[in-house]
Amino acid sequence: MPACPQTFVPNWTLKFPAASPSAREQFAMAYDAMHGRVVLFGGFNGSSYLGDTWVWNGTTWALQSPAASPTARYGASMAYDAAHGKVVLFGGDGFREITWCALL
C-alpha cells in the first residue's frame, strides 16, 4: 500500500495592515507566482462597481495605480498565466471588454 501524503495543517495569523481594500463582494483575486503576491481587482460594494487594484505581499496591502486598467466590474475571474508570467482577468458584469491581459 502506498504511503499517504502528508496532511496540510493551515497556520492562520491575524494581521492588521495600515491600508486595505474596502468591503466588497464578487471581486477577482489570484496569486501572482512570479512576484510572490496576491492581486485583487474590482468587485461590488453594495452601490457601485469597483475598478481598483490591490496587491498583498504577505504583510500589507498596497493600492496600485497602473497606467492602463480594466473597467470597473464584479463577478470576474482572475488567474495566473505561468507561461507568460502575468495575471489575467476575464469577464464580469459592468464591463465592456471581454478579456484583460497582464493586469500588473
TrEMBL record:
Lineage top rank: taxon: Bacteria
Gene3D superfamilies hit by this protein: Kelch-type beta propeller
Entries under InterPro entries matching the protein: Kelch-typ_b-propeller
Protein name: Kelch repeat-containing protein
